[in-house]
Structures are given as C-alpha cells and as structure tokens.
Amino acid sequence: MRSFWILLKNELKLNIQICPNVIESNKALTLKHIPKIHRNEVYKLHTIFQRTEISEPTLFSPSDTTKRIADFPEICVSTFSDNIIRKFSSLDNVEKIAELCSANGTVPVYRIYYKNTAIAFYRSMVGAPACVCCFEEIVAMGAKKFVLFGSCGVLDSDKVKDSIIIPVSAVRDEGTSYHYLAPSPEIGADARAVELLEKILTDCGYSYVKGKTWTSDAIYRETLSAIEERRQEGCLAVEMECASMLAVSKYRHIPFIQFLYGADDLSSETWEIRDLMSYGLTNAEKYMVLAFECGIAM
Length: 298
Prior knowledge:
By secondary structure, this protein is α/β, with parallel strands linked by helices. The protein has a single domain, classed as Rossmann fold (3-Layer(aba) Sandwich). The protein is built from 9 helices and 12 strands. Strands 3, 4, 5, 6, 7, 8, 9, 10, 11 and 12 form a 10-stranded mixed beta sheet that branches. Mean pLDDT is 84; it is low at 1-34.
C-alpha cells in the first residue's frame, strides 16, 4: 500500500514515498498516477469548497462498479418513502429488474408500465451522498431521464400551504454538490424542467408554488437563526438532497426534475413534527403519477 508521510512545519510540505513491491504487485498503481512533488516543496491543499474548478479524471467511475442492464428503462422515478415504494411494487404489472447494493443492504429496482411506457423506480436513500450514489449507479445501468420527489420541511407555510413545491434553485449547504460543480452559493434548476413540471401540474389541476429550497446535511442543526436567514433569502423549504442532485444531473447531462411536498413545519418558533413516516402516503398515487407524467414528457 502506498504510504504518505506528511511533514508540517510553518507551511504544509509533502514528502511522498512509494513502496516498490506494491507498485510491482499492482500494475494499476504506477508512479505516473502520483503528482510530482519535490521534497520540501510547498503544496497547498484546498477543500472542495475552495477549489475553482472540478478535477478530472477520477480513479474509478460508476460503470466500474455497476453493470449496464439490457433494456433498462430510459425513464427512472425515485422517492424516499418506503411506504410509497412498497405500495407500487406490490402492483400486478411490476417486476423487479435490478438491485442497488451497499454495506447497508440492497435496494430493489422495479419496472412498471405506465401508458405503455416502461419506467424504472426505486427508493432513494436519505442524504445527499447516498442519494447521489444511487443515482450514479442507476445511470450506469441505463437510465437517461430522472424524476425525484419527496417530503421536505416547510419554511414558509403561508406561501406553501398544501401546494406542491417546485425548486427553482437550491442553497448549497451540503458537501456533495461541490464534487460535481465549482463552488457557488446556490445552484439553479434547469429552466425547461421547471416549465415542464409547471405545465404538468397545471394540466393535472394541482396547486404549486415555485421558490428556493435549502439543502442541508445536518437535520439536527437547523438553528433558528439559520432558518430565519434562509427564509429571508426566499427559501420555501429545507431538505437534504436537491442541490446535490441538481449538480450530479448537470454533470452527467441527465434531464432531471424534482418536486417536493411539505412534511414538518419550521415556519414558526414551535416545530410541528407531523408523522414523517406516513405523511404523503394518502397522496402516493398522485405523486407517483405526476412523476410518471414528468418522465414521459421529458
């Protein structure tokens, strides 16, 4: 294994030693893969939040870990609700076609036919890193269009009420998106995707509201001051994946639509928890059909 010795004095200095027998035993790892850094040379390491561009290439890609599946549906829909996925996976015309595998276990991927169109669907994992990894592997399997929906915390109940939320941009208060796009305060949704979602919601007769969402990595660190600051910036909701999914879909050039529905309410000084496990189940058919319609229209 490669061993890295880091010498810290007044400034960061690196001295890299490579174990010869490792290079000999693993032809994939050679000196050409290691940056040439002279002894005592100052080498400034930047975090992803400070880099101005995205480095290429990566050591390995999703296609190295996930096999392409023949006849995998071009359209894929996903949500975070296990209840919704269980409900639809139990339908007669649904077939399991793949699995997403991790140390946490397996996530089944299903195929359903809607309006004579094959659509894949599965349960996304909560949190930006896991959600993005699932997306990356689904694309490696063969998906070319992606629709995601899920619940969120409401920051402005007067504006949202019972309407579906269309994110037009997401505040990047997480880390995953910075591995796919250079730093910026927020990331905008694709204008065509927003227009398409608006049209479908209008045609189906559902109320909606457009606005910013706040993507955060820390559900238990949504402080009163942060909530108020994001609300003043125009954020209608808080969730954990939107900014990252906008970033990875842009990076992979995959058409992407996301919509949100309100769960817990953070718009006052008293948190209204509601039942996050079952909230939205009564609307499961509505949300899934809206997602199917979006996929077909993309």
